[in-house]
Amino acid sequence: MEIREALDTDLDDVLLVERLAFGGEAEAELVKNLMRDRSAKPLLSLLALQNEQPVGHILFTKAHLTTDANIAIAILAPLAVVPDAQKQGIGGKLVQRGLELLSQAGFDLIFVLGHPEYYPRYGFKPAGNLGFEATYPILEKNADAWMVQELRPGAIASFSGKVICCDGLNKPEYWR
């Protein structure tokens, strides 16, 4: 399997992965909009290929805290693996490679609103009780789904505040 940064010419493959993984157009449209969103940049888009066929995609977009401008943060959304390639570790490899590249690029914290039993495997912790509020309120029953991963030691202890996402994610329906 190969994981590489997605090129502009890979957009059709990226959108195909999103459609197959989520069974419709909603995630594909979100990704297409995020890729064009200037407030999302710098972004990191990774494509996983198996036998030269696209099987997975992950996207990280820029965000910021309301309390401090001197911290580099991103939001992971979405992570997609086509149904035939799920449960093979592809999603995890995409997460790990993305975190590695973002760490090398100087990012401090990565946030995700995702499955609370999946993302902790990769070092994510519930963000709300660590002082990080989501762009929109998260229902109490889903509080553990709002998570953070520290890429720079001490960043969680040094910062707190409300995370403001890029324009493309700034819709309440994405935060339920």
List the helices and strands and how they pair.
Layout: E1 2-5, H1 11-22, H2 26-36, E2 44-50, E3 53-65, E4 73-81, H3 90-104, E5 109-113, E6 125-126, E7 132-133, E8 146-150, H4 155-158, E9 161-164
Parallel strand pairs: 4-5, 7-9
Antiparallel strand pairs: 1-2, 2-3, 3-4, 3-9, 5-8, 6-8
Helix pairs in contact: 1-2
Quick structural gist:
This protein has 176 residues and is an alpha+beta fold. The protein contains four helices and nine strands; from the N terminus they run βααβββαββββαβ. The termini are far apart.
Explain how this protein is built.
The chain has 176 residues and is of the alpha+beta class. The protein has one domain: 3-Layer(aba) Sandwich (Aminopeptidase). 24% of the residues lie in helices and 29% in strands. The chain contains 4 helices and 9 strands; from the N terminus they run βααβββαββββαβ. The protein has helices at residues 11-22, 26-36, 90-104, 155-158; strands at 2-5, 44-50, 53-65, 73-81, 109-113, 125-126, 132-133, 146-150, 161-164. Strands 1, 2, 3, 4, 5, 6, 7, 8 and 9 form a 9-stranded mixed sheet that branches. A hairpin with a 7-residue loop joins β3 (53-65) and β4. α1 packs antiparallel against α2. The radius of gyration is 15 Å and the shape is globular. The chain starts with a strand and ends in a 12-residue tail after the last strand. The model has no long low-confidence stretch (mean pLDDT 96).
Which class do the helix and strand fractions yield? alpha+beta
Strand content: 25-35%
* Cα end-to-end separation: 33 Å
Point out poorly predicted stretches: none
Average of per-residue pLDDT values:
96
Strands, total number: 9
Computed Rg: 15 Å
